[in-house]
Here is the input.
Amino acid sequence: MPTKKILLPEDDIPKQWYNIAPDLPKPMPPFIDPSTKEPGVGIVPKIFPKAIIGQELSKERWIDIPDEVREVYKIWRPSPLYRATHLEKLLKTPAKIYYKYEGVSPAGSHKTNTAVPQVYYNMKEGVTRVSTETGAGQWGSALSFAAMTFGVKATVYMVRASYDQKPYRKMMIHAFGGEIFASPSKQTEAGRKILAEDPDNKGSLGIAISEAVEDALVSEVKTNYTIGSVFNHVLLHQTVIGLETQKQMAMVDDYPDVIYGCIGGGSSYSGLIWPFYHDKVTKKAPKETKLIATEATACPKVTKGQYIYDHGDTARITPLVPMHTLGHDFIPAPIHAGGLRYHGIAPTISILTQENQMTTEAYNQLDVFDAAKLFIQSEGIIPAPEPSHAIKGAIDEALRCKETGEEKTILFLLCGHGHFDMQAYEDYHMGKLQPYEYPTEKVAESMDKLHTLYPWLDKVNKQYISCEPL
Amino acid sequence: MPTKKILLPEDDIPKQWYNIAPDLPKPMPPFIDPSTKEPGVGIVPKIFPKAIIGQELSKERWIDIPDEVREVYKIWRPSPLYRATHLEKLLKTPAKIYYKYEGVSPAGSHKTNTAVPQVYYNMKEGVTRVSTETGAGQWGSALSFAAMTFGVKATVYMVRASYDQKPYRKMMIHAFGGEIFASPSKQTEAGRKILAEDPDNKGSLGIAISEAVEDALVSEVKTNYTIGSVFNHVLLHQTVIGLETQKQMAMVDDYPDVIYGCIGGGSSYSGLIWPFYHDKVTKKAPKETKLIATEATACPKVTKGQYIYDHGDTARITPLVPMHTLGHDFIPAPIHAGGLRYHGIAPTISILTQENQMTTEAYNQLDVFDAAKLFIQSEGIIPAPEPSHAIKGAIDEALRCKETGEEKTILFLLCGHGHFDMQAYEDYHMGKLQPYEYPTEKVAESMDKLHTLYPWLDKVNKQYISCEPL
Here is the structure.
């Protein structure tokens, strides 16, 4: 049997992150400030440290990782690359399947890769508290871990519905010394206003973002806001995943024909594929690698959404972001892959999609849990529901190889474990899961509303996204 | 900073387990059959496969690990040895602290090290189903994982109180394809009898053992019983822990001055220390290494119990075992370290204790969680409550070194993660934990009852344990 775990020594933790910005097939369109209808970043400079804003806008290809960050990374990095020997056997496929496993981090997912540098840069600029929102809790727990590490306080606004349903994530945030409020909360003006109108409001990511941002803006203690995905600097930090994977695949003299990952905001998948994309643009790639993202049919932003300017949050606090979106008023069905329920996507994912550098497939959660079950039965690791979408893609690909006899090399990202998602597996076990497909008509409705809200939207879309002459 | 994770390649997964039996300072006393008052193993041959019984009684020093078992071990073995760099810094100690981390296994603890070979040997002898009891659920989930791996069915009787309190473990057993019943259950004569008298009975490990053994004895399908600790063959399988650790310490040119671990039945700690004990008896040890086990003050079998013949279970189905015990009628306080609530201990731990080869310290859970908090704050990993007892021992030792200036090398076993124990941390966070100290008088009462039950007990104790002339 081949080596199962391909491991790197700590010296091989990357010393620089890779930034895709200078290598994009076309430049990233600017954010738009809806009040001026012109490029503008709105509140961004008030809630992020200078170093992070610098990275967000940087055109440098390689950005140094501070030694202090690499020292914390050592707790779990380099993460293992697994050969899915037992899964290959179960599927009887001629394909080789590899997965990069980020569930070994203290918070159990890739989110710590960016939480650590984000808190570090804040700490260096004298910030003593960071705020954020969290849905299912992966980001909130990763941020709390990172904050604890650098002696910074973390305040997390967790969507009330998840706060009640996923108590273990809340407890983990406490264990890491974080402060957590069910959102809407009485801590902020935004929260109090909503609770006054609806005391039983179950919250949403949009509301939680509003609370976390307000907290950072008004706090008397020096507080900044932090974000777990979508923004360029977050994706940048996640490239440690892909950079390590490249070295690991080289150790077994292999290179992927196809790379699967799941996309919520798009950070983990970008972290994996950017370095492979760099191989391609620098002609170092030994073969053509297909990049296939996976999303939930309950939240099909790339497969059914439009590439257009839209707000990153329901409450319209953020500037307009050029991205595939289902509309900022999108209300997700209660699928267990909480991390995939975001209405938009990282702008670079949209550019790569538009320029035919990658594609996206959508799966319903019943098929996804069927795939996760096969993975557990063979590989033993219980995956989170989010990366189980990538597992579904990889298994389908491996089964197609079985039909055709192709000996493809399939790589996918297992971005987190499912230890705090056991209720999802129990619901699956008990036959309680619904497939959920988001209807196309609903997207059209949201787009109509967006155009009614901003009648000038087509103009900026043409000018910055389609780059058509006005 | 030194290397944080000391990793071995898969080729270094041990090829043989180390058996302490031939190297014990005195031979292991036999089991006693209370019906004959003579040495005898009772029901043992009816519920275990021949290969396991062979290992249980073996005097061979090295026992080959089957290739099929090593192939499954590759999923998580060799497990990492960590240098506790961040904890050392937090404590400002001149000591070097290392921990071997077994939480990387699919079920999250060391239990899989023995579950895999146990199911393998059963499968080889045609057994198609295995039964067992579980308290907090670590053993039940490890066995379910192993059974899934070899296509064998697993039936787990989980103590009702834990079944209700720790739903995630039950769900994990389901996810691994295991069948689980809250004990007492209606599946067995023993369970039905108890439920008839007391329909709300919350169960105990003793009752669950009775059910799992009865299941194996009466089942029409070829079913065997499996056990997660105490027995020699279980401890033997766990020696992969210590054998790997020796290689890893050699990689950084170090050797422990003291080794901490926690003891429930004693299998994980034995797995770590046996190979170091072998170094000592073969004069290969470069220094004198202190072996210090840790237990809960709520269940102080070694520090307050007596070394005497007693049953392994409350229902008195097992033969009499020569061990430190609090009495088979012991009812544990509801401490969160469920794995440390067993009234007895592996007989070899008792021999090593009696022969002054090791000592044991007891800690209350408030002090234990204080130590766990320091560990989380620095190392990031959330430990299970059981190994947090070992963390407490290691931290105290490191703080003593700070006083004396000694640069000791401290090694401890982190036998599992605490992802399914978050309620314990939340209770600690909320100030709800009780320290619990088991009163010495209670032990005396249990011993009196035992002597009343078996008036001839002193005689066999003298003959086989103390080896005094009759």
Remarks:
- The mean pLDDT of chain A is 95.
- The domain at 111-230 of chain A is CATH 3.40.50.1100 (Rossmann fold).
- Chain A touches chain B through 42 residues (CB under 8 Å).
